[in-house]
Amino acid sequence: MKLMKLQKVIECTGLARSTIYKFMDQGKFPKQICLGGRSVAWVESEIEDWIIEKIEQRDNVVEEQ
Q1: Whole-angstrom Cα distance, residue 54 to residue 61?
Q2: How many domains does the chain divide into?
Q3: Cβ atoms within 10 Å of 62's Cβ, excluding its own
Q4: Which of 4, 21, 58, 62 is the most buried (most CB within 10 A)?
Q5: What's the mean pLDDT in 26-52?
Q6: For the whole model, what pTM was predicted?
Q7: Is 8 helix (H, G, I), strand (E, B) or coil?
Q8: Are 57 and 21 in contact (CB under 8 A)?
Q9: How deeply is 65 buried, as exposed, middle or buried, from its count of CB atoms within 10 A (0-12, 13-18, 19+)?
Q10: Rounded distance between C-alpha atoms, residue 17 and residue 58, angstroms
Q11: d(Cα 23, Cα 59) in Å, to the nearest integer?
């Protein structure tokens, strides 16, 4: 299992830091893991699954039209 720091999550998703935290608060984005002190990270597979879900949502909208 690999962990991703915030900068990598931003690069992979294209989301801004504030949007990531807003989506987390709304339950629309994977939650971070506290590594100790002020250090946090996200599980890479959870971020990848979130991206795949977004792609599937996009494809479903196209098919419905």
Answers
A1: 11
A2: 1
A3: 7
A4: 4
A5: 97
A6: 0.88
A7: helix
A8: no
A9: exposed
A10: 23
A11: 21
3 pLDDT more than 80? yes
Query: CB–CB of 1/45 below 8 Å?
Result: yes
Q: Please, are residues 20 and 13 in contact by the beta-carbon 8 Å criterion?
A: yes
Range of the domain at 33: 3-64
Q: What share of the chain is helix, strand, coil (3-state, %, to 5)?
A: 60, 15, 25
C-alpha to C-alpha distances, 58 to 4, 39, 40, nearest whole angstrom: 25, 33, 30
CA 4 to chain centre: 10
Contact call for residues 41 and 3 (beta carbons, < 8 A): yes
| Angle value at C-alpha 38, between 36 and 39, nearest 5 degrees | 65
More confident residue, 13 or 60: 13
**Comparing C-alpha atoms, which of 32, 25, 27, 26 is closest to residue 10?**
32
